[in-house]
Structure formats: C-alpha cells, structure tokens
C-alpha cells in the first residue's frame, strides 16, 4: 500500500491532528505559552478559558473534567462552563458526551457565534461532518469573516473529500490572517490527505517558522517527514525545544500516528540503503 493509501485509511486520525486552528478556540480568549513550545501551563480547571485544555496533561484534564462536570450539573445553561466542559470531554475522548453538552447549549443559544462554532467542533469530533459544516457556516458572518472558522470549515471539507474547496477556503483565511502557523499546517495536512507529501512538507516547514507555531505544528511536520521514511529526522523534529519528558511524549505521539495500520513498519521496510 502507498503512503497515500495509508493516510486515506486513517483519515479520521489525521483530521484530528489537522484541525489545529480550531483547537485554539474561536473567541480569542485562549492563551498559550509562546516561550516554550509544547509546555504545559499550570492553569486551574475553573479559570481555564475554552481552548486552553490542550496545554494540560492527563491528570490535569481529569481534574478539570471532575470540577467542570460538577459545575455543569449545577447550571447546564451556563455558557462558559458548558463550553469548557465540552472541550475537556473532547480532550479525554468522550466525544459523544461532549456533543450532547454542546447540542443542549446550541438549543439554549441558537444565534451565539461562539456556541455554534464549538457545536460544529463537537459534531466534527463525532464524525458528523455535514452537520458540523452547517453549524460552522451558520456561525460565520460574511461581512466580518473569522479566519479560524474558515480554517475549521476547510478542515471539515477536507474530511469530506472536497479537497479543492478546502484549499480555496484555507487561502481565503490566509488572506485575512497571513503567515499564521495553524492555517499553513492545516493546508499542509490537506496535501497529506491527498498523498502529496512533498507539497505537504513545504507548507509544514513554512508553518513551523510562522507566528503561532507550537508543538502540535511541529508534530504535524514530524508526521509528514516520517511518512516519507525519514524517521531519525522526524524524531528529531518531534523533540525540538522540549524537556526530555515532553520530547518523549511527542515521539510516542509520532510513533502512534505512523503505527496505524502498521504504516510505520510498512514504510520503514520500503526505505532501503542507497535507495
């Protein structure tokens, strides 16, 4: 099987890595530590804004889930609590529960742009891509388009196999927000999905040098390099600017991505000396 075939068989997993911009949140309240790539911020569960949970480790996520779950039960229509609770649920793999939370919130706030955007993300995480696309487009305002929503729309279109439309959307987003790492990364992942790994790598290398580049963008570059059989280089990229513990986490992530359907071994077997 070609690397393109492997990617197509693992489209959902790759999609999860690709939707970087949307993971950063819509409202702009998310904060990231720009000084240390991939660092885990000591953020409390109660105070963490939507989109910050990707900076937490497993223990912190579990604590946040318990705390936010209790607050949500007390007031399920509290907008911030519900959105944060859904975000944590997605981060811990409970996509169906996250979708239920966001569906209820969307009913309570049918015209709220941020709620619709988060609802679209929950739908996409649960594989309901057509419904997710509808929610994202309803959240968008054509007169004041949000580049993060456009990026999310592009990622969903990619998942639906509408590659040309997706890339047009990414370029619209880049017109609004040039040289943004997450947009370049999502566009690069679009080329990964179509098996065009050289082009994907070009965009990924631009992404890691662009504003907003973080550990996830480097992981995507490492993935693209690894899919081309350059494993030592891929692991070196995955370890950049991290503590030994964080570097090991990144390498485990990289290997898990490439191990799907035995892709790591299948590609490694094809990489022969002097080839």
UniProtKB/TrEMBL annotation:
A GO term for molecular function? mannosyltransferase activity
Query: TPR repeats: which residues?
Result: 147-180
Q: Which UniProt keywords apply?
A: Repeat, Signal, TPR repeat
User: What InterPro entries does the database record attribute to this sequence?
Assistant: O-mannosyl-transferase_TMTC, TPR-like_helical_dom_sf, TPR_rpt, UCP035836
A Pfam family matched in the record: TPR_16
Q: Does the keyword Hydrolase apply?
A: no
PROSITE patterns hit by this protein: TPR
Where would one find the signal peptide in this protein?
A: 1-32
Q: Name one GO biological process term.
A: endoplasmic reticulum unfolded protein response
What name is this protein filed under?
Answer: Flp pilus assembly protein TadD
Organism from which the protein derives: Phyllobacterium myrsinacearum
């Amino acid at each position: 099987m070609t690397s393109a075939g492997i990617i197509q068989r693992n489209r959902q997993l790759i999609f999860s890595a690709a939707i970087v911009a949307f993971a950063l949140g819509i409202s702009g309240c998310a904060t990231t530590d720009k000084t240390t790539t991939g660092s885990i911020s000591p953020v409390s569960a109660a105070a963490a804004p939507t989109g910050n949970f990707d900076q937490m480790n497993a223990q912190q996520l579990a604590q946040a889930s318990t705390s936010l779950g209790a607050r949500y039960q007390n007031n399920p229509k509290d907008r911030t609590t519900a959105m944060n609770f859904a975000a944590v649920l997605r981060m811990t793999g409970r996509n169906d529960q996250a979708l239920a939370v966001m569906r209820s919130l969307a009913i309570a706030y049918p015209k709220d742009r941020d709620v619709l955007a988060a609802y679209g993300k929950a739908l996409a995480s649960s594989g309901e891509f057509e419904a997710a696309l509808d929610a994202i487009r309803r959240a968008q305002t054509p007169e004041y388009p949000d580049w993060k929503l456009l990026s999310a729309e592009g990622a969903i279109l990619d998942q639906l196999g509408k590659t040309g439309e997706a890339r047009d959307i990414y370029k619209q987003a880049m017109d609004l927000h040039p040289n943004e790492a997450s947009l370049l990364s999502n566009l690069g992942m679009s080329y990964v999905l179509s098996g065009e790994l050289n082009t994907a790598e070009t965009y990924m290398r631009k992404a890691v040098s662009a504003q907003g580049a973080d550990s996830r963008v480097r992981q995507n570059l490492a993935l693209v390099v690894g899919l081309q059989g350059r494993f030592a280089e891929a692991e070196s990229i995955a370890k950049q600017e991290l503590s030994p513990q964080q570097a090991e986490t990144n390498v485990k992530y990289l290997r898990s991505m490439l191990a799907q359907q035995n892709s790591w071994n299948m590609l490694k077997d094809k990489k022969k000396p002097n080839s």
